[in-house]
Write a structure and sequence with these properties.
With 247 residues, the protein is mainly α. It contains eight helices and three strands; from the N terminus they run H-H-H-H-E-H-H-E-H-E-H.
Amino acid sequence: MSIQDEIDWQVRLINRLMASPCTALERMYHLYLLLQNQYYRLLVQSEEQFGFDQFQKLTFVGLRDLAEKDYRLRFLAMHGTGTAFSRTGYLEGRIAPKASLEKNHDLLHAVLGAYWKYLRNEHLRETPNQRVPAMNALLRALDQLMAQKPTSDRRHHRLAIVAHFIKRPWSAEPENRAGPYRFFTLRSELAQAAIALQATLERWPRLATWVRGIDGAANELHAPPEVFASCYRACARAGIVREHEIR
């Protein structure tokens, strides 16, 4: 449903209740609004949340996973309501690299597959959406679509993916303090994620067109920059040479 569809049916419902009050319907509507509010809080950093830490807690527990499987809606939200002009010029898509090639494939295929549908304007078609092709075919299709678009074309926003490696505090949880030296667990996780990302880019070289940068995400005080040094060197060897920040 579009935002306009959501507004329209709620306006019709309120007019219906004003014309003919119904206690049961009013309670159902109230419950719906409460559930929508909770859903909203899980998906975005709302006005009642302060700082990245509160938002990050929702990502660690996996509550957002189901809602994040379809990235097409995000591209449409960033595009705006105009059908022929995107209000966004360039979009930085942030992903957290996974610990295996298979999981990285699934994540990147979901993101780029949704972008492929967005570029083909499938959200404007009445016919069912075409199935997203396999990774190699998808990357070739994306290359063809982008080759047809001049830099000044604003009918769609352009996507660049940045791999965000997550910082974890050394002293917060007992499992984070395990190992023979400080940040041993985090270093191990970063090494595994960097190796998996490198293997992913070697398996599908065309992904280098889309995965364009790396970053260390989360609270700045959770881990020093040097913990990420070996991870970043591995990414540089994999061809990701743009570092947003080393913090």
